[in-house]
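User: Protein folding is very new to me. Would you mind checking the protein record under this note? It all follows right here:
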Amino acid sequence: MALAVLRQIRQALATLNPRELREMAERPVKVGLIAPDARTLGQMETYFLPAHFSAERRAQAAKMLVRGGGPDCDIEIYESSILRPAKAFSLDLESPENCVRRILKAREDLMLPLARRLYPFRKPAVHRLIRSVAKENALFCLTTAIPDVIPSLAMIPWAAGEFASDTAFLTMNQIRMAFLVAAASDRPLGYREQRSEIASIVAGAFGWRALSRELIGKVPFGGGLIPKAGIAYAATFAVGLSLERLYRVGYGFTRAERHAVYEEAYEHGKQIASMLLANFRHSKAS
């Protein structure tokens, strides 16, 4: 059985192309900065070019910033004391992280290059990516278990129908997440570059598979679906946060830390799965 699952995982991985993600992360982006005076403009630049960056990384990031903005800019950021166009963003130097979150929400297409080069975008972007993939995995567990309630996999942006098992898809999606987190963290990404992380994800897939099957078997009438989806969410979330730390400081979670993150994420994952299921049933009834 384990060999069969490994073959399915290998087939699933054939659909992943880290080169495409690398190209997305390295896409040239111009960010215009507009301020009422040179001093304030310098403060905005300092926020996006933190002192702990190496000289090389500061130089790379500085190439993205355009003083005064202009028509070639992908994004324009105005200091909050001055009026801005509707499509531009406002940055309050007292709470600049609010501007970062608004940009990531409005311009998901620029998430990877912004996070890769401009440090303030990195952690919030990585956390958005982790939560998104964890939710996809929880959703996939529901869609494959109750096709009468959810008639289509169209809500998942991947060719789910090509995968022979939950384990193959969830493992593939976690490895895709590893590529995304590495790209956003300005780290090398690819099968060779991340072979140790990929091996750890594949090994952990069998633990998830055993635990989810045990839950489904013990709870009658499909009552184990929510815990199963919660496990998929929690396992993915814990893997993602451990990867975020690995690429940020050089080491991942300890066993105790991973367990604590998993326990908290499991409860949240069950809540998300319950809401997803309720929404699907309501849609079908209407």
About this structure: The chain has two domains: 2-23+122-285, 26-121.
